[in-house]
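Module 6 notes. Inverse folding takes a fixed backbone as the condition and produces residue identities as the prediction. Think of it as a translation problem where the source language is geometry and the target language is the twenty amino acids. Below is one complete input and output pair. Work through it position by position during the lab.
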């Protein structure tokens, strides 16, 4: 159930910002925003923050009502740390959503590109296949999946009660990879609309 929650968070973190930007492209409102004195970053940042807050709210409902309420999973760690890591991860993955929005002309293309980008991230994360069962080259490629770091930290926080002393390397990996992914998405968005 935890793995499914993290997978859904990943899909939403990419899909929501991409869909919001593409809908504005379809309606022609993105051009109206671009002629305003706002920079492309000022246009997209509120969308990313709003989507992150929506995902955090959905995550909180899932943790308290489903994981604890229905499945009775004992949460041993600090939930504030889990939500902070979730916010960082959501923010990072929204960079991929922004990248997808620059390639898509409509919502159907956005959905297809999200699935196409999502599958390698999911398959390399260790969510479906344990890292020990993967070939050595594939196991090295796992470090390119932001979901790998997020899964590692989430399980350690929720089930083992781990803190920052144990999670610092995964947090550093997610921060560096997430910054690169988000930076690339913002760069691509600014290049297209700047």
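Target side of the pair, the amino acids:
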């Amino acid at each position: 159930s935890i793995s499914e929650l993290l997978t859904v968070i990943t899909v939403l973190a990419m899909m929501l910002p991409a869909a919001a930007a593409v809908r504005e492209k379809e309606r022609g409102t993105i051009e109206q925003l671009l002629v305003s004195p706002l920079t492309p970053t000022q246009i997209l940042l509120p969308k990313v923050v709003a989507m992150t807050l929506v995902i955090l709210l959905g995550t909180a409902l899932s943790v308290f009502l489903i994981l604890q309420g229905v499945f009775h999973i004992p949460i041993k760690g600090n939930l504030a740390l889990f939500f902070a890591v979730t916010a960082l991860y959501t923010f990072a993955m929204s960079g991929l959503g922004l990248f997808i929005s620059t390639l898509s002309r409509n919502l159907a293309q956005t959905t297809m590109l999200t699935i196409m980008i999502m599958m390698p991230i999911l398959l390399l994360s260790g969510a479906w296949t344990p890292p020990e069962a993967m070939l050595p080259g594939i196991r090295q490629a796992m470090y390119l999946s932001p979901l790998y770091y997020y899964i590692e930290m989430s399980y350690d926080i929720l089930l083992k009660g781990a803190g920052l002393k144990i999670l610092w390397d995964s947090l550093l990996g997610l921060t560096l990879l997430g910054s690169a992914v988000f930076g690339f998405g913002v760069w691509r968005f600014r290049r297209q609309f700047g």
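Reference fact for the lab report: Residues 123 and 129 are 7 Å apart (CA to CA).
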